[in-house]
Write a structure and sequence with these properties.
Length: 429
């Protein structure tokens, strides 16, 4: 057994290195994945005294291996030694080429046990649903249908052109309306309630969240979660579920999972081994060229005009060697932010200011995304826009109710770069 080997290595390490408590704390933290833990829960998980856990966690924090957020702690997965250390301590098992941590297997088992209590399920995806949202939702629907559930898949706030094309090509019907009183609701590929809109259920359903974004309010409100912020796509999480449950992939689900993986890995450019292994397996059911074909949508004229207008309104700042661009868009703000980065900016922030609403989309150049965390940066603007932030370190967005503080938001963002670079921003004219 793999676990036995790791256990043995652990004992060896403990014997050589001494500090047993610290090794146990490290193991507990790594196996908690990125979920925040209190000192109390860590001391229980690691089976060490509270005072010892407190000391060790703080030593690890000083070393940068642990980060703290509001008095709770998680391992710093960006630490340069994280992968090496996780390799030793993570309790995981290989199934079908996919390695799934024990904690995730527990999450999946809990979700599956809950599914057994229901006869129907409602799956919901985020606004302007992209191929990953669509692919995850449909693959999940097919899995649940196979279990005998009646399933409705809904996109209450619309589907993107690419998403629609995936549905057309691989034939699945998604509704706009959401069921009034489902007993079980799955939310996929979303982290905050703004992304899915107000849901008015007649009776309170059980809510299950499957997502790969930084945890937002949906993770707090859900009854069950399967969240991995390191996963490149939500579709790979659905695939992990299927593999972990030992259910053969329905061939009809394969193209949907593939569309999610391929789209969210920028056509496999940022794919990891797990993504490639999944693609390899899923290609037993569909041609890769069909996936690429489903995902390549010609930009429509309104999008191209919107993006070009955004270019005209760009305002540039420089902090040391970083070029930070701000602009405004009436639509397509995230696509516009991507275009600004392609043009040469290091950071792009595009505001979509409406009468009583504001949306902010931010992107950072790929090689800087391990250094600059846009979610953290935009968090400072949350009180100003009276809203919330979601997304990833390298691609984040925020939605809020107050559209009147754009200048203040820009100042707050520039401040965070000034702090980091120890220099003052200059407007480039
Ligand atoms: Mn996604």
């Amino acid at each position: 057994m793999v676990c036995g080997v790791i256990k043995y290595m652990d004992d060896e390490l403990e014997n050589i290195l001494g500090a047993k408590s610290k090794l146990r704390i490290i193991r507990a933290m790594i196996n908690a994945d990125d979920a925040l833990q209190s000192i109390n829960s860590l001391s229980e998980m690691a089976e060490v005294a509270y005072s010892v856990a407190y000391r060790d966690v703080h030593i690890l924090k000083d070393l940068g291996f642990v980060v703290d957020e509001e008095g709770k702690y998680r391992v710093n997965r960006r630490h340069s030694l994280y992968l090496k250390i996780a390799e030793i301590f993570a309790d995981k098992e290989e199934i079908g080429g996919i390695s799934i941590s024990n904690r995730q297997r527990k999450d999946i088992a809990k979700i599956w046990a809950e599914v057994g209590n229901h006869e129907n399920a409602q799956i919901i995806m985020h606004h302007n649903a992209d191929p990953d949202a669509v692919g995850s939702a449909v693959a999940l629907a097919l899995l649940l249908k196979k279990q005998g559930l009646r399933v409705t898949v809904s996109a209450p706030l619309g589907i993107s052109r690419q998403g629609r094309r995936v549905l057309e090509k691989f034939q699945f019907h998604v509704r706009e309306e959401v069921e009034k009183s489902p007993s079980l609701v799955f939310i996929v590929d979303s982290s905050s309630s703004e992304q899915i809109g107000k849901l008015a259920f007649r009776t309170k359903p059980k809510i299950i969240l499957i997502d790969h974004h930084q945890r937002g309010n949906l993770a707090k409100d859900a009854d069950f979660t399967f969240v991995d912020t390191e996963a490149h796509s939500c579709a790979i999480l659905v695939y992990r579920m299927i593999v972990s449950l030992g259910i053969p992939v329905v061939s009809h689900a394969a193209p949907f999972i593939l569309c999610g993986i391929v789209a969210d890995t920028a056509f496999l450019r940022i794919a990891c081994k797990e993504d490639i292994d999944a693609v390899d397996e899923l290609l037993n059911h569909v041609e890769l060229s069909d996936i690429f074909d489903a995902l390549s949508v010609k930009e429509d004229i309104s999008e191209r005009i919107a993006k070009l207008k955004v270019m005209r309104r760009v305002e540039l700042y420089r902090v040391r060697d970083l070029i930070i661009a701000f602009s405004r868009a009436g639509s397509f703000e995230s696509r516009a932010a991507v275009s600004i980065i392609r043009m040469g900016a290091d950071v792009a922030v595009v505001f979509n200011v409406k009468k009583s609403e504001i949306r902010i989309s931010a992107r950072v150049r790929k090689y800087l995304s391990s250094d600059i965390d846009l979610v953290k940066m935009l968090k400072n603007a949350e009180p100003l826009i009276e809203g919330s932030v979601g997304g990833h370190a390298g691609a984040a967005s925020a939605n809020g109710k107050n559209p009147n503080k754009v200048n203040e938001v820009r100042k707050v963002i520039l401040k965070s770069f000034e702090k980091r670079a120890n220099s003052v921003s200059k407007l480039i004219k």
